[in-house]
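FAQ: What does a multi-protein file look like?

Like this. Sequence, then tokens, then the next protein.
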Amino acid sequence: MEQEVALDVKKGIETKSYEGIGEAAKLKPLEVDLKRLEDLSDAIVQDFALMRKREEEMRDTNGKYF
């Protein structure tokens, strides 16, 4: 018996429901969009910091053996 299963996984900023946040805080649609963009920019900054940290770790690892 075969079954096909589809799994939609969200992580990070994709998990937030900005419509719910806007309704709870009584924000205008433009304010909700600005909040979403602010969170997106914070996520990008965090991703770059993580990539920089990984790059440093890889550089240190490579430097130890040469």
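And here is the next protein:
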Amino acid sequence: MGAAMFGYDSAFIGGALTLPSFQKRFGLESAHGTKLANLKANIVSTFQAGAFFGAILVYPVTEKFGRRLTLLLCGLLFNLGAIAQLASSGHVGAIYAGRVLTGLAVGASSLIIPVYISESSPPAIRGRLVGLFECFLQVSQVIGFWMNYGVSLHVPKTLDKQWQIPFSFQVVPASLLVILMFFQPESPRWLVKAGKADQARRNLSRLRQLPLDHEYISWEINTAQRQIEAENSLGANRSVWAKVQQAFTLPGNRQRLLIGMALMLLQNMSGINALNYYSPAIFAAIGFSGTDVSLLATGVFGLVKATTTLILMLFLIDRLGRRRAMLIGSCGGIVAMYYLGGYTAQSHSFTSEHVPKDGGAYIAILMVYLFAFFYALSWNGVPWVFCSEVFPTAIRSVCLVFTTCSQWLAQFIIVYSTPYMMTNITYGTFLLFGTSLVVGIVFIYLFFPETKGLLLEEMDILFSQRGPATAKRRETDRIIQDRRNDGHAQAVVAEKRDEKTDPMIHVEAV
């Protein structure tokens, strides 16, 4: 439900801005040029501004008060923001305030939820359960896109109800988050870390549906205690400032952190959030004007992106590899963005009121969907996967704060500037996004090593190597293979020695 808060809010707002009832109520109908761009930018981007600070402020709160209580507060805060927007009654300032509150809640919850799931899940299915976060996010985005299309068809544009319905639906996932989290237990791992081992055992017994004294419960509690002791020995209990210093001063850590932050920046520079938040306006700029037409095209865009993301996460991410997926996706995105830039420049669709619906226009629509496909295959999920798997345990939480804040800051920049770019540089908007993907390919090729199939301790080997990304992975594979060969040789020697002293050792081992 926290993922649904995030996904729905990011999808519905762009279409809501095009609804005639919303434009009339909040003065967008009479605004033009820079004034209209300013209103759109402020309404949308205040959400990202709130999310940026939410991701920063939540860290000390969740460390002190736990995951469950913090998520309950996130749901309540999101509902306050949604109610403020509904009660705005034409005052755009109330919309701004409400979106700041919903942004704070989403920025905080987007950091906590994957942690809570991973800390509460059985190890065997932990990855799949964390992956549900991305799945629900994509599904809720589809709901947000199609919600606007539904009200534009079935609710008269003269009624405020037309814009109030999509705005009011925000309270559904947030309310469900509060209600359902009320019945959920606190993270057992957080309880162990807080010195509440008995409560952790009771919560784990409930989650696993096993007796308190079951050997599996004891094993998982003991494993968590050993892991926390190991993390503390590596510096996990140090001050936040000491962790920040460790992240930026050690070359291997600094390299990982800078790559993660750069991936988040380039992810947004690809243009995806311009399409997420302003897709109806972008479809209109291509020449498909009319609220119903642009909202329908936006709904199909959401379906393409969601379907491709689900396929990637469920079937391809560990087969195709992170690096290959990023390179393939970037190439496809470049073709799509450069075509859109060239078409809008030739057709003058940004400035002309009568753009012919010829073959070029329909290819432009296809290119938007093609971009959604290639983006979902690469930039949509891979940066998040990379950041979740490469950081050392002792500083992982602090590094994730930096990468998550980079994501929200980059979103804010793109979402705020897109209306101005579409007004002032028109077709250059698409050329900028396409060129950013060219930069992304160069960056991936030179600096982004393949991390597929590596254990956490092997990440340290990978990022201690010098040279371009491909050379790093080759050298890492060689070192790992040498160590395995040495370990196998030592095991054979030990086995032969043990067989001479006690042949039953070999039998038991087999």
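Q: Is there any per-entry metadata?
A: Some entries carry free-text notes. For the entry above: The two ends are 48 Å apart (CA to CA).
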